[in-house]
Specification:
Blueprint lengths: L1 H18 L4 H10 L5 H27 L4 H27 L4 H28 L17 H19 L5 H10 L5 H25 L5 H21 L5 H21 L1
Helix pairs in contact: 1-9, 2-3, 3-6, 3-8, 3-9, 4-6, 4-8, 5-6, 5-7, 5-10, 6-7, 7-8
Amino acid sequence: MEIGYIFSGLLVGILVGLTGVGGGSLMTPLLVFLFNFSPAVAVGTDLLFAAITKTGGVWVHHGTHGSVDWKITRQLACGSLPAATLTILLLRYLDQNSKDISGVITYSLGIALILTSIAILVRAYLQRHAPPLSEESNEGRFGKWQPLVTVTVGIALGILVTLSSVGAGALGTVALFFLYPRLPTLKVVGTDLAHAIPLTALAGMGHWTLGNVNFGLLATLLIGSLPGIWIGSHLSARIPDKILRPVLAAVLLMIGLKFVTN
């Protein structure tokens, strides 16, 4: 089975490198359906998996490209980190009171996957119809309300990511494209990565306290995923994005509907 985990990590890493879609939307369903892990363990393990794999990306974006807008990152984190903490406390309460915590996580995972499939398609539209860049490239869509709206989006991401491990990548970037239409794509990606690391790390450690992290599984997934991301990044220029993204969106939509209707 360890070889299977390594191969799964490799496959997900390649797809992440090809599409830029977060590993959570791909890895968590794989762990549930292919390897029969409980949704709670799949989500908890994948959150720490995401925190580790995204760290290298932020190092490149901040150190090499200077493409992290830390002001936006702080505003998102002001909403997402408290929301993630409260969500973990809610899950602990449900667990202690013998309610179906697995059912809550499974349904949330389905909703997150459906939203992600939509986000994959919407992102391309937002990129094509973005206004021209200006000197005020971080100018927001909502004027004086921009900080409040950004914090509110952070709250939504914090809840969804903690419940499902999905959303920090695909949904986060789409939210930034919508909120900051003049923000360059490189900064959108860098800022989303910078926000995703503390969020997934905090949520993952919260799930660890609930007993929802399998560290042996985590290690084997990392062995496969790190070279997979490198391979996928180099293959991305050879596979047409207009073919790959709709196919991926359709697959995630079908998986999401399966989670919701179970």
